[in-house]
Amino acid sequence: MSTLPKVSWIGLGIMGSPMSENLIKAGYDVTGYTLEREKLDRLAAAGGTPASSVAEAVRDADVIVTMVPASPQVEAIAYGPDGILENARTGALLIDMSSITPQTSVDLASAAKDKGIRVLDAPVSGGEAGAVEAALSVMAGGEQADFDEAKPLLEVLGKTIVLCGPHGSGQTVKAANQLIVAVNIQGCAEAVVFLEKSGVDLTAALDVLNGGLAGSTVLTRKKDNFLNRDFEPGFRIDLHHKDMGIVLDAARTVGAALPAGAVVAQLVAALRAQGDGGLDHSALLRAVERLSGARI
Q1: 159 catalytic per annotation
Q2: Which of 21, 151, 157, 196 is deepest in the core (most CB within 10 A)?
Q3: 155 to each of 148, 221, 262, how far by Cα in Å?
Q4: Could you tell me the CA-to-CA distances from 204 to 21, 190, 199, 201 in Å, in that order?
Q5: What DSSP state is assigned to residue 89?
């Protein structure tokens, strides 16, 4: 019999499916639930156990991991008679890896405590590639003892695992991450259009730029997207639009000015309004091209 905790995984999307599969490969017993039948079939093929509801998925779990798009989805699966808090066993550890508002995480931790359930907010950075490669960065918020208990599981999913402070802190750091990523992608997109309009060999230019101070994980990960105009979603514009709303709201609450972030948030919103919300966030290149009268 395995001594590893039994895991319930709620949300098997672009990130959740490969992450749950990495746990299965590491020997964890994973029961999963999501709304899409084909994702449940994929979980079963990987050696996991599909469930027919959230309640069924969490009932016998030691650890419950949630990875859903936004605060409303977290609240939908957490609360109510069929939700996690009413059906998980006392003492279970809920690790929410969704990217949501810090206040949603604080409220969830408070409500769960009343039910005898412990909570960590543990959003991630690294995109689909990081999820597949188990190379994610995990930024957690919660109690030290709960983090210590969760760390062996989190180390199966990522390479950088850090407790950032009390409940909500992980989400605050994730919001900062999304701010940095969006501004970085925007800068890269502007550079691509500038280089192409100048007649420079774009492949050579991006290679040398990535070897200097302008280099970044964003450029490494998204260089081929820019070169090939391949915007198959690893992280959708729709989700980054949601995250930019979170960071601007949180910054307003604490009195932090984000001038560059506000501009990029508007560009992300415009791209979404133009019908590109389902594309990868590297499609910010399309917004710059439109403004520059370049190819789309």
Answers
A1: no
A2: 157
A3: 11, 22, 34
A4: 37, 16, 12, 6
A5: P
This prediction's pTM: 0.91
Structure tokens given for 88: 């998980």
One-letter amino acid of 257: A
Q: Which residues contact 248 (CB under 8 A, 6 or more apart)?
A: 258, 261, 262, 265
pLDDT per residue rounded down to tens, the chain (296 residues): 579 999 999 999 999 999 999 999 999 999 999 999 999 999 999 999 999 999 999 999 999 999 999 999 999 999 999 999 999 999 999 999 999 999 999 999 999 999 999 999 999 999 899 999 999 999 999 999 999 999 999 999 999 999 999 999 999 999 999 999 999 999 999 999 999 999 999 999 999 999 999 999 999 999 999 999 999 998 999 999 999 999 999 999 999 999 999 999 999 999 999 999 999 999 999 999 999 997 66
Helices 37-46, 16-25: crossing angle, 10 deg rounding: 20
What does DSSP say about strands 124-125 and 136-140: parallel, antiparallel, or unpaired? Answer: antiparallel
Residue 150: name the closest of 207, 65, 75, 87 by CA: 65
Question: How long a stretch of residues is the chain?
Answer: 296
Task: State the residue for tokens 């050696």.
Answer: 47
Among residues 174, 222, 223, 242, which one is catalytic? 174
Residue partners of 260: CB distance under 8 A and separation at least 6 = 183
